Amino acid sequence: MLFINGEVVTVDSEFSVMEAVALKDNKIIAVGTNEEILALKGEETDIIDLAGRSILPGFIDAHAHLELYGTNRLGVNGKEADSITGLIERLKEKAKTTPEGEWIRGWGYNQNHYAEGRHPTRWDLDQVSTEHPIIVVRTCGHISCVNSKALELAGIHSQTENPPGGKYERKAGELTGLLLESAHMNMFLSANYSEEEVMHGLELASKDFLEKGITSVHDAGGYGPAHIRSLLKAVSSKRIRQRVYALYGSLHDSTGMVENGLMSGIGTGLGDEWMKIGPAKVFIDGSSSGPTAKTRNPYTSDPDDSGILYLSQEELNMSLGKAHQAGWQITAHAIGDEAVHMMIEAVRSSLENEPRQDHRHRIEHSGMTPPDLLVKMKDLNIIPIPNPAFIYEFGDGYVSDYGERVNHMFPLLSFSEHGIPFAIGSDSPITTAAPLHGIFSAVTRMSKSGKVIGIGQRITVQEAIKAYTLNGAYASFEEELKGSIEPGKLADLVVLNDSILTCDHQRLQELNVELTILDGKIEYAAKKEGVI
Fold first, then answer.
1. What is the Cα–Cα distance from 384 to 361, expressed in whole angstroms?
2. How many helices (H) and strands (E) does the chain have?
3. Could you give the dihedral angle defined by the CA atoms of residues 136, 280, 240 and 105, in that order, rounded to the nearest 10 degrees?
4. Which residue(s) pair with 217 in the sheet?
């Protein structure tokens, strides 16, 4: 297969832009001028004229939740409602087709975008049903609301103590049904999907990700070892078409999951080019938009709150220190600056006890990273995995909750200036999985309302592309295998409908994926005349 007359964004060491590229079987065999590439034409060669359109390395989403994304597709989308009343109506429709006693599930609501300006309550959800258990998960994935039936089935009542790392909201001593952090995670485990539903969801997720040009995913976890088994089964049966780097963590009892991995004798890198075990992962704090992230200073919006911690420094050091000693790459969910600092200290402690070169330890999100933490991160060669699409989705709320600290949130330019290699993740389904939207957010720092949030952290299109391709491969020890368009690398590529390098920055998220090539085969083609 030959692609000619294009904008071949190679993402090589010089960030070269060429005219044409040749593929054979599942590898890239040549990059160069039209003349050089056409000279390779054979009797069975397919030639695709790009007519100036961009062809890039396949996008690598360095942090996404495939199972959660897919199973969400089976529930009620709270983002499609603009009020709690609208959400209730959608849930009532779902109840009509839900067998008696089974869970009704919703996702994606954001109280800041609802007309009522508040979270739903159990009394709201009781309007839908008191016979079905109901759970509606906030857009952040760290908070949910359940109805009275769900609380009853879980044995949770007004005298129930808050779980470690979580909270049951109460008003006048009564449970409202709002569950924060580990309280939500525990409930979600009770409301989990069947294996058949999970496999169907993974297939839906893979299809959607292919349409967005994503050829590799660093899966950021589900619930327990069963999630890893589901990924393996879905990859081997080709329900998941992407290459998967599986973070070994759980949204419930993350330290227990890490211990499980250590006892099994497996480790980072086990697998093949289609699925590999990634880093051991734990949770340190909450979400950026809840807000439940653990910050050094109280929230601007609430001087009595500074977030939720799942672990103490001692617990964190012990869990990840053991994983590091056993040869694992390690990482943690860390949003607030206090949580980021704790993870940096855990890496420092691990390396002092057991020095290792090229460990590539990571910090998932690294949401709030001020200058003093940047220096420490650089000194320890830590790879942050930021989510610039959060700026678009939640940026207006960040200004309210964190004030001037937004200038150090997902600080992509600061990472770049400090020589810290960062790989971008969508954290989908928290935000859209579309890499082109992530690139738009990284370059413009624009929120939904059109405000620019942290203007000093904008980066170039080229830097954003690298973070979605080669740096993603680097974060999984696979930069020699994929992440750039160079001879010998896997033929994972994406063709856009226009030039990404000359596109107006405000139009970046309007670009479309026309072709997704994975392992040398066209796995997705937009239904548009003249694409192929």
1. 9
2. 17, 23
3. -10
4. 61, 244
Distance between first and last Cα of the chain: 11
pLDDT on residue 188 = 87
Q: How many residues does the chain have?
A: 532
Whole-angstrom distance, CA of residue 188 vs CA of residue 211: 29
Which pTM does this prediction carry?
0.92
Does an H or E element contain 402, and which?
Answer: helix 389-402
Give me the CATH code for the 83-191 domain, please: 3.10.310.70
At residue 528, the pLDDT reads 57
Please tell me the distance from the alpha carbon of residue 201 to that of residue 67, in angstroms, as a whole number: 6
Kindly list the strands in the beta sheet with 166-171, ordered across the sheet, starting from the edge strand earlier in the chain: 76-77, 104-109, 134-138, 143-146, 174-181, 166-171
Handedness of CA 105, 110, 111, 116 (dihedral sign): negative
- Rounded to 10°, the helix 389-402/435-444 angle is 50
How far is the C-alpha of 122 from the C-alpha of 110, rounded, in Å?
A: 16
Q: Which two tokens stand for residue 63?
A: 């942090």
CATH class of residue range 2-58+491-525:
mainly beta
Residue 231's closest CA among 257, 212, 203?
A: 203
Q: Where are the domains of the chain?
A: 2-58+491-525, 83-191, 195-490
Comparing CA positions, the residue from 294, 384, 304 lying closest to residue 342 is 294
| 47-49 sheet: strands from edge to edge | 27-32, 20-24, 2-4, 47-49
Q: What does DSSP say about strands 383-385 and 493-496: parallel, antiparallel, or unpaired?
A: unpaired
Give CA angle at 37 (34, 40), nearest 5°.
145
Closest CA to 459 of 503, 410, 493, 497: 410
Of 497, 433, 53, whose CA–CA distance to 207 is shortest? 433
Which CATH class name applies to 195-490? alpha beta
φ/ψ of residue 517, rounded to 5 = -105, 125
What CA–CA distances, in Å, run from 445 to 169, 390, 391?
Answer: 33, 9, 6
Q: What CA–CA distance (Å, rounded) separates 296 from 320? A: 22
Positions of the chain with pLDDT under 50: 529-532
